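Please, structure for the following, as tokens.
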Amino acid sequence: ITDSIADVPDAFLLDHRVSVLLLGVMANGTAYLDKTTIKLKQLFDAMERPDEYPTSAQPEPARLKAMLTERLAQFDSLIVISVADKLSGTYQGWVKAARELSTPEKPITVIDSRLNSGAQGLMVKLAADMIAQGRTHEEIVQAIEARIPRTHIYVCLNTLAYAVRGGRVPNTVGKLGMRLGMRPIMTLDKHGHGAAFGVSFSQKGLTRKILALAQKAMRRNGIEAYSIVHGDNLPLAEMYRDQLKRIVGKEPEFITEISSAVALHAGPGTVAVCLTERSEPVQ
């Protein structure tokens, strides 16, 4: 089980019976469900309104509990991979619901991924692949927890404007950055807090920095898996795939669009590269 901030292709989720709790999005005075009743282009239109900026809403406790109750009736145990606790109250909601429903006979493990978007999606895909391989609940939890510290997301923003309006960057800092034409790389620290990570003044400059990060990871330990997500910018995402394939030596796990909850802070045209480093250098 995961939440809709985890970006994974819909076809994979369906094929592997991954349950997704949809976060709420408020836009133009209307409540929507992320990835279902609101699509990115519709959201981006709403984000351009000067009067009211869309917001996301964490899921209601009753909806969390209902999903876990329903899945417990179908499965022997549950693993919940949540968006970073530091980014959303969703994790704490999962913990509370699991505490009420988990039993020794049917355990529920809730994992704070300390990630979001395609990086969180890599953890979801890993868990689903391991379930398909017949691995145990404990083996899957251990594998995910071992990979979280080695998994990173690097978000290339077209502009700071949406991060400012969405509250991810302070207004004074954002206005100065926009005036200077700065394009930052956003990431998450080891605790799951958002952080700026270097800047450039052009898309080509951002691309060079992201590819340099991938090359550094390859030299250090190698890259076990990577994914690419985007905000209605498939051409740029595919360009990253072509470049990263040469560096890493294999295709990405997936390329997919970002969730509305992430897009609120990233904006249109955004591309993020997510990667998991190997635990030790390749011999």
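The first helix runs from residue 10 to 15. The longest strand covers residues 223-230.
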